[in-house]
Amino acid sequence: MERHELIALMADLSLAGMRAAYDEVMSDGIKRQRTVQQILGDLLAAERAEKQARSIRYQLGAARLPLARTLAEFDFAASPVNEGLVRDLHDGAFLATQRNAVFVGGTGSGKTQVSRAGRA
Known about the structure:
57% of the residues lie in helices and 0% in strands. The chain has helices at residues 3-12, 16-31, 36-63, 83-90, 111-116. The radius of gyration is 22 Å and the shape is elongated.
């Protein structure tokens, strides 16, 4: 089967991940002398990754979370949030100790913005 036929078949079957990764996976597989099963496995893994990414994008859209902001944009003066503790948590040191971080507060106190804040 020719490349264009395979790409068309992937499109018909809604295999967007495989279709997008096809050329790269095939050229890499041939260059590295991978077996047919290994190349097929790589294509299936690309499809799974695309489906997971699409699911996450959908879930984030459905959640209707506010736009992502940086921690520098958060107004600590207007909120009862402990700035020092938030900055320590933002650095991620608590991950090494395998502990959870839980944000508790009233509506509008900044829990979501602080937990989603990116680097400035």
